[in-house]
Design brief:
Helix content of chain A: over 70%
Number of helices of chain B: 6
Oligomer: heterodimer
Distance between the termini of chain A: 61 Å
Number of helices of chain A: 6
Largest sheet of chain A: none
Largest interface: A-B, 29 and 31 residues
Strand content of chain A: under 5%
Number of strands of chain B: 7
Radius of gyration of chain A: 18 Å
Distance between the termini of chain B: 62 Å
Largest sheet of chain B: 5 strands, mixed
Shape of chain A: globular
Order of helices and strands of chain A: HHHHHH
Strand order of the largest sheet of chain B: 5-4-3-6-7
Strand content of chain B: 15-25%
């Protein structure tokens, strides 16, 4: 397999995974707008009166990133990757700031895995940032042949499930921590 | 189709299947966690015991300025809810509390308690529409009930005795306090012991 084909496939797989993650996050935010607003306010990064505005802006930006990543055009994929990377970096920073402040009991608000934040959430965003780089680096053209499409779809399936498992275990960990009896 | 293609296809299918199994199992663990927690409020051993007389306090609400009596014979039951503006779970429980207060107004009085800067709490009460309830600020009150984690709720009966208490994270756990009062038991464990002595 030629190097170019490989980078094209890596780009497709990364773009698809990012799309799926952002769609999941988007559904989570739109599913319970009030809860998301409360989660956002709890981060204590955005001034209280800007919270409603930012709570609308973030899902809109995520939607743009999803569409841009899904289109099979090199220019939009690059834009989508950069936008997704910016969003992920901001989220990771917001989580890190609150971890430094010691405010670990706030909801992540990132789709799945509620109850508390940890450095694993930052690591998760770091991983997704890597995917942004992969998506931006490769070709956005069509994949050569049926076999490569099959492999790409299978890879996306396996890696997406892996991400879901990671998120689920992250959520379980939060539950486990929250229900710890500290015997006071 | 050569041997390698077959092998890779079968392995992909197998890995995909295993991933689905792992995901399903981890989800089941998560669901178990969620089902276990609503069983009842997490009762801590410290502080006044269930059935014992609650420590008595007379404190002024920071909103109305009226004196509120905690403990002793008051003629009605009191749900003392410890919260903080920095506690996200408390915020999520406020609509539930408002609802419960509206339904149970006949016999129950909702009292909010916290400690810290009065101005910050007044702003919080305004923003969260809590100005209709007594809102007490007293570190001594929290210490008397040994509140170590929030949100913490204490149900005090008309006779001034603690009827139920615990760390409450959701509606079911708040309701478990009332169930405990109705059944006359302090915890799920005690209820099980009474109904199934062999367990």
């Amino acid at each position: 397999m030629a190097g170019q084909d490989f980078s094209a496939m890596a780009s497709w797989i990364a773009a698809a995974l990012l799309c799926l993650s952002f769609i999941r996050a988007l559904l989570h935010k739109l599913g319970d707008g009030l809860a998301f607003r409360a989660d956002l306010a709890n981060y204590r990064i955005v001034p209280e009166r800007w919270v409603p505005l930012v709570a609308m802006l973030l899902p809109a930006l995520e939607g743009v990133a999803v569409v841009a990543l899904a289109l099979p055009l090199p220019s939009t994929r690059r834009v989508g990757s950069v936008l997704a990377a910016c969003l992920l970096a901001v989220y990771a920073l917001a989580i890190a700031v609150n971890l430094w402040r010691g405010r670990v009991a706030i909801d992540c608000g990132c789709g799945g895995g509620g109850q508390g934040i940890s450095w694993l959430h930052v690591a998760r965003n770091g991983l997704l940032l890597g995917l942004c780089a992969l998506a931006a680096a490769g070709e956005a053209g069509p994949l050569p042949g049926v076999a490569s499409v099959f492999v790409a779809v299978a890879c996306v399936g396996v890696l997406w499930l892996l991400l879901l498992v990671f998120d689920q275990l992250l959520g379980n960990h939060g539950h486990a921590v929250a229900t710890t009896y500290n015997g006071l | 189709m050569n041997l390698l293609t077959i092998a890779v296809t079968v392995l992909f299918a197998a890995v995909l299947g295993l991933m689905i199994v792992v995901w399903a199992l981890s989800r089941q663990i998560g669901i178990l966690f969620e089902r276990v927690s609503p069983l009842g409020a997490l009762v801590t051993d410290a502080g006044p015991e269930v059935g014992a007389a609650a420590p008595t306090f007379e404190l002024a609400s920071i909103i109305s300025g009226r004196l509120e009596k905690i403990g002793g014979r008051t003629g009605h039951s009191t749900l003392l809810f410890f919260l903080s503006p920095t506690c996200p779970v408390c915020k999520k429980l406020l609509p539930v509390l408002r609802h419960i207060e509206a339904d149970e107004r006949g016999w129950l009085r909702l009292v909010l308690a916290s400690d810290g800067d009065a101005d910050e709490h007044r702003r919080y009460a305004q923003a969260q529409r809590l100005t209709g309830y007594p809102y007490l600020l007293s570190a001594e009150l929290g210490m008397a009930f040994r509140v170590s984690r929030l949100p913490f709720a204490v149900l005090i009966g008309e006779d001034g005795r603690v009827q139920a208490k615990g760390l409450v994270n959701n509606r079911e756990q708040i309701e478990s306090l009332f169930n405990a009062k109705e059944l006359g038991v302090s915890s799920v464990q005690q209820y099980l012991e009474r109904t199934h002595p062999s367990v």
